[in-house]
Amino acid sequence: MRYIAAIAAAVALAGTGAAQETRQARGKRVVMEALQALGGDAYQQMQNRVETGRAYSFYREEISGLSLATIYTEYLAPSPGKVSEREREAFGTKQDSGALLLTEQGGWDISFRGARPLDDQRYKNFQDSTLHNILYILRQRLQEPGMSFYSQGADVYEREPVELVDITDAANFTVTVYFSQITKLPVRQVYRRRNPQFHDFDTEETVFSKYRDVGGGVKWPYDVWRQRNGEKVYEMYSTSVEINKDLKAGLFELPGNIKILPTVK
């Protein structure tokens, strides 16, 4: 009962304290507080990241794939409305069970047989999910022309008082982010994107938890899970996260002699 009362008081206090702010000013303040909680300038100057842990993919709520995974991410110079990062996902204890390479030029599923280009929709899903991920937005997109922040007020999520902010870009695409009132960190986000097959909308939800200091005052969530239309699609449980590593040359490039396989249709 005391815990519930404390949450209610925090929500009420947030509403009272922000009464004189416009919704735009409150939204921008909450977002900037989140950036500072993640590490501020150190977070925005993060050049790369290496996450190691267990990754799970799901199909209709059943596990369709699980693996030990090491995910390498490298940030590029921001380009408005475009994904400005490269990612390589290597699987297996020795990173020898295949890999997924995602760059500004495209995506490839790499195995001992060669490199198979990802189909257009799978690559587009990666771009959409990245562009509208709050952790990416805070690193790469805050200064984009046309970005707006609109507070939806205070609420409670999983017994924790939160601030809700709609973040909308120049393409009029909105993601709603839940920020903890206690830690200021993002804990949940929800957005909708059009389904080209059924001509309706998919609702994608991502939850972030177990933030830890990963060096230089930067924080990153060790547990991330995502669901689409209420069904689990992805979970990542990291055992280690490191930033600003000296990554080997060519990590985000296809070997020149690799066989390019036909795209699966």
How would you explain this protein's 3D organization?
With about 260 residues, this protein is α+β, with helices and mostly antiparallel strands. Helix content is about 20%, strand content about 45%. The chain has helices at about 1-15, 25-40, 40-45, 120-130, 135-140, and strands at about 50-60, 60-75, 85-90, 100-105, 105-110, 115, 150-155, 160-170, 175-180, 185-195, 200-215, 220-230, 230-245. Strand 8 and strand 9 (about 175-180) form a beta hairpin. The relative contact order is 0.19. The model is unreliable at about 60-65 (pLDDT under 50).
The residue-averaged pLDDT reads: 89
Question: Approximately how much helix is present in the residues?
Answer: 10-25%
**Can you tell me the CATH architecture?**
Clam
Question: In total, how many beta strands?
Answer: 13
Overall SS class? alpha+beta
**Major pleated sheet:** 13 strands, antiparallel
Q: The CATH topology is what? A: outer membrane lipoprotein receptor (LolB), chain A
Question: What Rg is obtained from the alpha carbons, in whole angstroms?
Answer: 19 Å
Q: What is the number of independent domains?
A: 1
**Low-confidence region ranges:** 58-64
Our count of helices gives 5
At the fourth level of CATH, the homologous superfamily is: Lipoprotein localisation LolA/LolB/LppX
N/C terminus separation: 56 Å
Element pattern in H and E: HHHEEEEEEHHEEEEEEE
Content of β-strand:
over 45%
How do the strands of the widest beta sheet line up side by side?
Answer: 6-5-4-3-2-1-13-12-11-10-9-8-7
Outline of the structure:
The protein has helices spanning 2-17, 23-38, 41-44, 120-131, 134-141, and strands spanning 48-59, 62-75, 85-91, 99-103, 106-111, 114-117, 148-157, 160-168, 174-180, 186-195, 200-213, 219-228, 231-243. It is of the alpha+beta class and 265 residues long. The protein has one domain: Lipoprotein localisation LolA/LolB/LppX (outer membrane lipoprotein receptor (LolB), chain A).
